[in-house]
Amino acid sequence: MKLAATVLDAPEPRALARFYRDLLDWQVTEDEPDWVTLRPADGGAGLCFQTEHRYRRPTWPAGEGDQQMMIHLDIEVEDLAAACARAEELGATVAGFQPQDDVRVLLDPAGHPFCLFTRA
User: Fold this and answer.
1) Amino acid 119: pLDDT
2) Keywords of this protein's UniProt record, alphabetized (predicted)?
3) Is 111 left (phi over 0), alpha (psi -120 to 50) or beta?
4) What span, in angstroms and rounded, lies between the C-alpha atoms of 112 and 60?
């Protein structure tokens, strides 16, 4: 078995795919009205985005009765401050709750939490 991709639901998959395409500098390899696939240049596992009309933004951190995140992406970066600034330029927001000093939790434009981190 081989993991081919991780799929994120979104009300507007093309908009979310554009965000991650620009953030990761990946290429669009499939673009349908309700489905977009991104892949890295090295051909590794990709990210897919699919339309979910009943999508509810997750709450970070989730409280009782809140829509919880079901998955999050960990993205390694060389410069944490610069990567956060770039993500914000592209439409991400820094989450109010930050559980670690060497990791930054951000929310993509659809509200999915993702983490930027540097290797120690």
Assistant:
1) 87
2) Lyase
3) left
4) 9
User: First-to-last CA distance in the chain?
Assistant: 31
Can you tell me which residue has the tokens 């079901």? 70
Write down the pTM of the prediction.
Answer: 0.92
Q: Which helix (H) or strand (E) holds 5?
A: strand 5-10
Assigned token pair, 30? 């499939």
112: tokens are 């999915």
State the amino acid at position 47 in one-letter form: L
Provide the angle, in degrees to the nearest 10, between the axes of the packed helices 80-90 and 13-24: 150
Q: Peptide bond before 61: cis, by omega within 30 degrees of 0?
A: yes
**Domains of the chain by start residue, with CATH:** 1-53 (3.30.720.120), 72-120 (3.10.180.10)
Whole-Å CA distances, 120 to 30, 39, 80, 83, 101: 35, 27, 12, 16, 12
Is the CB of residue 12 less than 8 Å from the CB of residue 19?
no
